[in-house]
Structure formats: C-alpha cells, structure tokens
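QA checklist item 7 of 12: single-chain prediction sanity check.
[x] sequence parsed
[x] length recorded as 105
[x] structure emitted
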Amino acid sequence: MAATNESKAYEALKGISGGDALGNLLPRIEQFVFYLGLAVCIIFIILAGYQFFFGEESSKKNAEDAQRSLTYAVVGLVILLLLNLIFRILSGILGFNFDPSSITK
C-alpha cells in the first residue's frame, strides 16, 4: 500500500517539476511571446519604411523620426533574438525541452 502512494506522489511531483505539465507549458509561452514580439517588430519596421517613403519630403524631422523608429524596431528584434537564445540555453541547463516539434497537443 505504501509503494502505491509513493509512486502516485512521485508521478505528481514529476508533472510539477518539469515533466509533462511545466515541460509543455513553458515552450508554448516562449513560442507565443517570441512570435508576438516578432510580429510587432515587423510591423514597426514596415511603419518606419512607410514613414520614410511617404512622409513629407522636405521635413527633416519626419526622416529623423522614421530613422529612430527603425532603429528601435531593429534593437527590439535583436533583444528578442537574444532572449530566445537565453531561453534555449537555460532550457538545456534546467532540463526543459524547448523544441517546438516536441510539444504535445
């Protein structure tokens, strides 16, 4: 009887400590945040390009604003890629599987 209770407790702890529940939740959250951030960066890059090409030609301030927006979008994209790399490194250290192809539905 005690062995059965111990095995149930072990299975419960395995699910909490990164086995099934957390091991499948974290990659989904990471993937969602990555793709959302990627979409936002792409939108800002497109808007900055639109501001460059279709803004007032004589306005130097408009060109500077577009350049600033493009710079922020590219910096945001670099930060997003670095965070993705950090998540992948930490997943290897902590034992979580962040491979999107291994996420069970």
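[x] summary fact logged: The radius of gyration is 22 Å.
[ ] second reviewer sign-off
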